[in-house]
UniProtKB/TrEMBL annotation:
Its main location: membrane. Pfam families: OpuAC. Keywords: Cell membrane, Membrane, Signal, Transport. This is Glycine betaine ABC transporter substrate-binding protein. Residues 27-50 are annotated as: Disordered. It comes from Lentibacillus salinarum. Residues 1-24 form the signal peptide. Transmembrane segments: none annotated. PANTHER family: GLYCINE BETAINE/PROLINE BETAINE TRANSPORT SYSTEM PERMEASE PROTEIN PROW, GLYCINE BETAINE_PROLINE BETAINE TRANSPORT SYSTEM PERMEASE PROTEIN PROW. It is found in: Cell membrane. The keyword Metal-binding does not apply. Residues 58-306 form the ABC-type glycine betaine transport system substrate-binding domain.
Length: 321
């Protein structure tokens, strides 16, 4: 009988001890930091419950056929697709790019140039769009010539018969919807260049003509902007612009989105913001030079990410997991 009661007493003591340990465990966790239901996975990272949801996974991204947009768009597209999105990147003119983002038929754009180059679009659509990130902080624009030409300022073009006749009084331009074309038209009027005409073409045609003229050391005038591979590969200079028609020190190149983008696709919104936090002029120049050396824009983007896998991981971590 004694042995039986002793056994029961030991059993009761054991149960009591277990109960006390279970109840007292909370004090131990409070002393050490966070409790198990605080969202932590116990290893210093965030639990899967803290992942950012994908939301709508079909994205439309318009971009213009300018060198910078041509390289940064596929880079961002790869990052978004790695995170779980299907991205339709569509090449358009500047006007449709702004219109489609403002009316919601597109999610965001990769080539807003403000405050100067796209000022007219901003005036029209600023209530229907929002800036969500900056690709390049300072992107100067200006009338550009080979460095061997004996002109330093836009003012030097007025009444310059020798130069005017040598280039048939023509400034070789790009696509007519580009903001830099509008600025050049304004410069022609502002500086009294009545004899000069701005020729519409495309960036590719302009660059081909520029390279041809430089090969023969002949004069040519084109609208230029940085970052662009032509300034790394060719000996060029921007003409002084005393009246700052082209915006002075330069525009910001930004990602601009429809206001519903963050709510509709929160994960994509986060990827774009992370991307713009890291992206800079040096990164863009690396991509531009790779393309000029013969790679396609998609190949240049993929090679960059192969060489920098930590960036891709950083941009997509915790998205939709």
């Amino acid at each position: 009988m004694f042995k039986k009661f002793r056994f029961l007493g030991l059993a009761a003591a054991l149960v009591l001890a277990i109960t006390l340990v279970a109840c007292g465990g909370g004090d131990s966790e409070d002393d050490s930091g966070e409790s198990a239901d605080d969202g932590s996975n116990g290893n210093g990272g965030e639990a899967s419950g803290d992942a950012i949801e994908l939301g709508e996974t079909e994205l439309t991204v318009p971009y213009v056929a300018w060198a910078g947009a041509l390289v940064r768009t596929p880079l961002l597209q790869i990052a978004l697709e790695e995170a779980g999105y299907n991205v339709e990147a569509t090449q358009v003119d500047a006007g449709p790019m702004w219109t489609s983002v403002a009316d919601g038929s597109a999610d965001f754009m990769t080539a807003s140039w403000l405050p100067a180059t796209h000022q007219n679009y901003w005036d029209e659509y600023q209530e229907d769009v929002e800036v969500i990130g900056e690709f390049v902080a300072q992107a100067p624009l200006g009338l550009t010539v080979p460095s061997y030409m004996d002109v330093e300022s836009i003012e030097d073009l007025k009444g310059n018969e020798e130069l005017g006749e040598a280039v048939d009084w023509t400034i070789t331009g790009i696509d007519p919807g580009a903001g830099v074309m509008a600025s050049t038209e304004e410069a022609i009027e502002n500086y009294g260049l009545e004899n000069w005409e701005l020729q519409e073409s495309s960036e590719g045609a302009m660059l081909s003509e520029l390279q041809s003229k430089i090969d023969d050391e002949e004069p040519i005038l084109v609208p230029g902007w940085k970052p662009h591979w032509k300034f790394a590969e060719l000996d060029l200079k921007m003409l002084e612009d005393p009246d700052e028609i082209y915006g002075g020190e330069g525009d910001r190149i930004e990602a601009v989105a429809n206001p519903e983008f963050e709510e509709n696709s929160p994960g994509a919104f986060e990827v774009v913001q992370r991307f713009t936090d890291d992206y800079n002029e040096e990164m863009e120049n690396e991509l531009l030079v790779a393309v000029n050396d013969g790679a396609s824009e998609e190949e240049a983007a993929q090679q960059f990410l192969d060489d920098n896998p930590d960036l891709l991981e950083k941009w997509t971590e915790g998205i939709g997991e």
